[in-house]
Amino acid sequence: MTKTDRYRARTRTVEIEWIPMKDGRRLAARLFMPKDAGAKQYPAILEYIPYRRRDGTRLGDDTMHLWFAANGYVTARVDISGTGDSDGLVGDEYVKREQDDALEIIEWLGTQPWSSGTVGMIGISWGGFSGLQAAARRPPRLKAIVTMCSTDDRYACDAHYLGGCLLNDNFNWGGAFFNYAALPPDPAIVGADKWREIWRRRIDAHRLIPAEWMKHQRRDAFWKHGSVCENYDAIECAVLAVGGYLDGYTRTVFRLVENLKAPCKGLIGPWGHKEPQVGFPGPAIGFLEECKRWWDRWLKDIANGAEKDPAMRLWLTDPATPDPVAETRPGKWIEFPKWPAPAIKARDFGLSAEGTLTTNKRAGGTKPLRQIRSPLTTGSAHQEWCPFGLGRLAPDGASDQREDDGDSLCFDVPLKEDLRIAGFGWAKLRIKTDKPQALVSVRVNDVAPDGASTLVTFGVLNLSHRDGHERPKPLKPGQFYDVAVELKPVGQVVPKGHKLRLAIASANWPMVWPSPDTPTLTINPARSALSLPILPASARGRPARFAKPSFAPEGETTVLQAGKQVRTRSVNIETQVMDLLVVSDDGRYRIEETGTEVGATYTRRMSIQRGDPTSPRTEVEYRSSFHRADWNARLDTAIVVTSDRRHFYIKGKLTAYDDDTVFAERNFDEKISRDNM
Question: Is 562 exposed, middle or buried (0-12, 13-18, 19+ CB in 10 A)?
């Protein structure tokens, strides 16, 4: 018997289950359940996202949800309203209606004939957000969630802003969502006589969503909605928080474990924006087994001791050379019964005017000072804000930092012992500028004896946000300010014999949009410091162990056209314009269960001139297509973003094709004032 046959013998799926909403809408679900569900009752697990359960996430759904079904759970993959085959309009991310619908879905799942009455939620990225936001609404049947690569703070830790700086991910992700939110439903599900009407309604109501996000450049009520950090105590169910060091959302795991009063455990590996059982970069772990242990404890009330598990399990990465295509990271798992861990202590490194990191304390005095005005191309060797960590398939991690170090103000210290960094760090800087708007970019690097410079952690701060993100204020040129730049959490060993480097720059492109001018930063080293969380050699942490990864089989597919990944950087020597091209082509494949041929191509172009702050330009194009004998639909979308010193300009275009004939077109054009940005 094959693995597929074994799962078929133990499980069954329901291709379309309509979940009714009180206002008459119906949400489309695909159910996975044990063979005897109905005769026996099982807890339910919900994954609630907008990425099209019928064709977009189908193969990954098979591997995870069938596994849970074979292990005694009914799972539901539900399309958010206005996406996939669900009724309604999507509107935007995380709107209140989306949360309200989640509460109705949870109640529906808990009252079905096959249900034992308890419900859990699981998801990565949007699905992780959904779980946290639903948990904060306290539906009584929701007993536990597993949230991966998600956030507690939609402004400070999401794909839009970082340290008050505008992320290019606002457009990278925004350009993708601009496409996803206007895709058609499947005629085989909603009806051959209705799908065009539904598609037209979605297109007519469509908005230039990334422009809407740019209209909220400070942390206002728009971002506070759906940010569970506004009231951690609202969450009462058990939370397993999961992330990766390479991922953009790492800080959330630490903050949830530190702040939730509800049972909460943290798990952080070396991964990018991927589930731990996939594990890019590796090692992958038996994460579905970890989830089952979590569900067994909180949904089935099995006394397995999960509530007594360590508060935090971390991957401590061994020293490595800079390699943006690495598919695995050397290191080891360690666990901490409590977090914050008492053994981990902050160690301060002072800065000297000679360019060294000094002893544990900041020295006194005011002179001499150090200055830097970085080229706007600084940051080209940086990782993306949220890499998927796919190694040679899509090298989106950091490469050798020497080029960026050369355009930065650097402070070094040779290490006489291994330095084991575990958690949050800070760069505390006394700084002034010659312009009212400026940003500071901070990197901490591991410099090997041969000069190779490996990124360890980083942070950025829009200096007008120095006192918080709700009420930014321009700088007074020439006035010194004391600022703290939060560094991304990390678990990393910097070895004896290497140098620890602090690199400070005034730009970080293409990760963040540059300031409206080219400021010169002046640092007072004597009043500045680097503070890092250090795990001493005497407190090694207990080793953590995991099962090997396991999956259910995915459905049969036929590859019709192979995909490809392209990432190239070029510089025009005459114009000093740097261009970055990223192409992610999924190719074309047929899902044999439904007969649907699916294709998607995502292209990003980001350019900037070395010395011109009005030159940044980002273009994002996305093409999605679906083909069967009864269905031939395609959606092409594109956005273009530019700026000058006072405004951002964003244009969008949408063209929908039905059987290769233009079905609908929309054009968008927005001019948005810069708000201390």
Answer: exposed
- How far apart CA 239 and CA 120 sit, in angstroms, is 10
Taking the model in full, what pTM does it have?
0.96
The Cα-based distances of 150 to 125, 153, 387, 522 in angstroms read 5, 9, 14, 36
Q: Which tokens sit at 360?
A: 């544990």
Helices (H) and strands (E) in the chain, counts: 12, 31
Give the DSSP letter string of 63-110.
HHHHHHHHTT-EEEEEEPTTSTT-SS---STT-HHHHHHHHHHHHHHH
Residue in the block written with tokens 């902050």: 346
Do residues 167 and 511 touch, judged by C-beta distance below 8 A?
yes
Cα–Cα dist 454/322, whole Å: 5
The answer to whether the peptide bond before residue 495 is cis (omega within 30 degrees of 0) is no
Closest C-alpha to 347, from 442, 249, 413: 413
Q: How far apart are CA 525 and CA 366, in angstroms?
A: 8
* Token representation of residue 593: 């269960």
Among 503, 498, 485, residue whose Cα is nearest residue 405: 503
Percent helix, percent strand, percent coil in the chain, to nearest 5: 20, 40, 40
| Structural domains of the chain sorted by starting position, each given as residue range(s) with its CATH number in brackets | 3-154+225-336 (3.40.50.1820), 171-217+556-592+595-677 (no CATH), 345-537 (2.60.120.260)
| pLDDT above 80 (res 363) | no
| pLDDT, tens only, 365-407 | 556 999 999 999 999 999 999 988 666 555 678 899 999 999 9
Cα distances from 652 to residues 176, 207, 666, in angstroms, run 12, 9, 8
Query: What sign results for the dihedral spanned by CA atoms 495, 496, 499, 502?
Result: positive
C-alpha closest to that of 637 among 214, 202, 78, 126: 202
Please say whether the beta carbons of 500 and 349 come within 8 A: yes
* Nearest in space to 149 (alpha carbons), one of 136, 160, 138, 158: 158
Q: How do residues 288-325 score in pLDDT, each as one tens digit?
A: 999 999 999 999 999 999 999 999 999 999 987 787 76
